[in-house]
Amino acid sequence: MKNRPIVYATTLVLIAFAGEGHAGTNDGYSGVNLNIRSGPSARFPAVGRLPAGSSLTIHGCLARYTWCDVSASGVRGWVSGAHVQFVHEARRVYVPAYAAQAEIPVVTFNVAGYWHDYYRDYGFYGEVDHWSDHRWENDGNPPGWRDNWDDDHIDPENEPVPDND
User: Fold this and answer.
1) Contact (Cβ atoms closer than 8 angstroms) between residue 72 and residue 58
2) Is 45 in contact with 37 (CB distance < 8 Å)?
3) pLDDT band at 54 (very low <50, low <70, confident <90, very high)
4) Residue 155: helix, strand or coil by DSSP?
5) Residue 153: what pLDDT?
6) Pseudo-torsion of CA 128, 132, 136, 138, nearest 10°?
7) Which of 14, 44, 104, 152 has its CA 20 to 30 A from that of 164?
8) Whether pLDDT at 149 is above 50
9) What is the spatial distance between Cα 154 and Cα 161, in angstroms, rounded to a whole number?
10) If pLDDT is split at 50, 70 and 90, which confidence band does 17 have?
11) How far apart are CA 88 and CA 107, in angstroms?
12) In the Cβ-directed half-sphere of 13, how many Cα atoms lie within 13 Å?
């Protein structure tokens, strides 16, 4: 019976490590009605749709945060990072503007592996070879993208003062 505190302590440590499985994810929200796609391009087949304001889980985003790997309503897929929000410093912000500060993971995408993990039961799975040859990196920026996300970082002390004419 003297070993009981050690067993409890070991169990608590294991539970603490098991809870870290979510450390690489972030809670988020769709900023608009949002298509969930089977890859990081508007050309990939859609696998779901989220109404504006829906909750989602952000698993990571591509470099520059153009596309994010998310799950919501039982569906896993890719959405434009420009339309995904999360809470940072007590306010909702868009992923490309604050993802680096919030340490949202940067991930990569491999069609064959991703589709094998999430879309084996979908009708388009038979087209995996076609989509594996698709150069999605050349498809341009996702819907809603802009190149000035740093404009979202306004320092209140340096904010312009309105003219009082």
Assistant:
1) no
2) yes
3) very high
4) coil
5) 60
6) -150
7) 152
8) yes
9) 13
10) very low
11) 20
12) 6
Scanning 67-110, the segments in alpha helix (DSSP H) are: 95-102
Q: pTM score > 0.85 for this model?
A: no
Are 107 and 98 in contact by the 8 Å Cβ rule? The answer is no
- For residue 12, the 8-state DSSP code is H
Position 151 scores a pLDDT of 73
The CB-side HSE value for 64 (13 A sphere, CA atoms) comes to: 12
In sequence order, what E strands does the chain have?
Answer: 26-30, 34-37, 46-50, 55-61, 67-72, 75-80, 84-88, 91-94
CA dist., res. 128 & res. 40, Å (int): 14
Nearest alpha-carbon partner for 115 in 136, 95, 94, 89: 136
Strands 34-37 and 46-50 turn out to be: antiparallel
For residues 137-164, give the mean pLDDT. 70
